[in-house]
Amino acid sequence: TEFKTKPRPKEDKYLTDLKIIAVSSGKGGVGKSTVSANIAVAMARLGYRVGLLDTDIFGPSMPKMFGCEDARPYAIEKDGRQLIEPIEKFGVKLLSIGFFVSPETATLWRGGMACSALKQLICDSDWSDIDYLILDTPPGTSDIHLSLLQILNITGAVIVSTPQQVALADARKGIDMYQNDKVNVPILGLVENMAYFTPAELPENKYYIFGKDGCKNLAEQLNLPLLAQIPIVQSVCENGDNGTPAAMDVASPTGQAFLALAQGIV
Ligand code: ADP
After folding, report:
1. What keywords appear on the UniProt entry (predicted)?
2. 4 occurs within a structural domain
3. What is the CATH number of the domain that holds 223?
4. Looking at the 3D structure of the chain, how many domains does it have?
5. Quick check: CB of 236 below 6 Å from ligand 1?
């Protein structure tokens, strides 16, 4: 993919030369955070310097997925400024509101508070020395998305969906948001997650639990690239829970799939 880095009107020089990839889904629970985490880890494995920002203020899942729920980022002094230093794990620089606020507290926030917390995570954090910043965005098209679009010059968006019709309908709304005339963020492609299931005892069989090729068809219809079809794999779910993203295991088919996905984005 050829990226054009647009000049950023914002004053922050740390964010100027960065390629910023927003991972969006529309519907919740389709695996957007799982895909974001694995894209970030896979990019790091490919040798890129990667930051991952969990912008899901009301439901941050990255601390758990990276097995660092107890981590507390600290402030450093850089060029006369106090900046939050991201946590580094699996070669990825990670920040999440989950490091600072308990989920119960965050859910009591109003939109404005969430947006200002997000702004701090972006503008007052040390994102220097990275090539890519991956944004795990909340489901839907919320205030948080609008803030992200205002604060940052997003290079491109990756849309995650299952092949199910209700998920695809929401994915379309996400695509429309980015393709809106005033926003104009290029869609890098679609990721079909939970595309099928293959039981261990029937390795030749594919069961299309959420429907077959839903994202593939949507991608064709909208003339967008289909970046990956990721099956339902028990280890992907387990690895999310035990804090080691599947992309760490490059020998596994899923690890390979996430590496290929990352290669399709860089
Ligand atoms: P979202 O960010 O869209 O809400 P998550 O990434 O939190 O979704 O995923 C929802 C659930 O589905 C999690 O339990 C996750 O581990 C699981 N999951 C996601 N993708 C897969 C997959 N390809 N195979 C198996 N489980 C998956």
Report:
1. ATP-binding, Nucleotide-binding
2. no
3. 3.40.50.300
4. 1
5. yes
Complex ipTM > 0.95: yes
Say if CB 33 and CB 56 are below 8 A apart. Answer: yes
2 found inside a domain: no
d(CA 241, CA 243) in angstroms, rounded, equals: 6
Closest residue by Cα to atom 27, ligand 1, is: 237
30 pocket-lining for ligand 1 (C-beta < 6 Å)? yes
What is the model's pTM?
0.93
Question: Is the Cβ atom of 27 under 6 angstroms away from ligand 1?
Answer: no
Mutate to test the pocket of ligand 1, among 25, 34, 242 (most ligand atoms within 8 A of CB): 34
Domain that holds residue 250: 13-265
Contact of 46 with 266, CB cutoff 8 Å: yes
Tell me the residue type at 152: L
Q: Does a structural domain hold residue 1?
A: no
Provide DSSP, 57-99: TTS--HHHHTT-TT----EEEETTEEEEPPEEETTEEEEEGGG
Asked whether residue 8 is assigned to any structural domain, the reply reads no
Residue nearest atom 5 of ligand 1, based on CA coordinates: 31
CA atoms in the 13 A half-sphere facing the CB of 123: 16
Return the percent helix, strand and coil in the chain, to nearest 5. Answer: 40, 20, 40
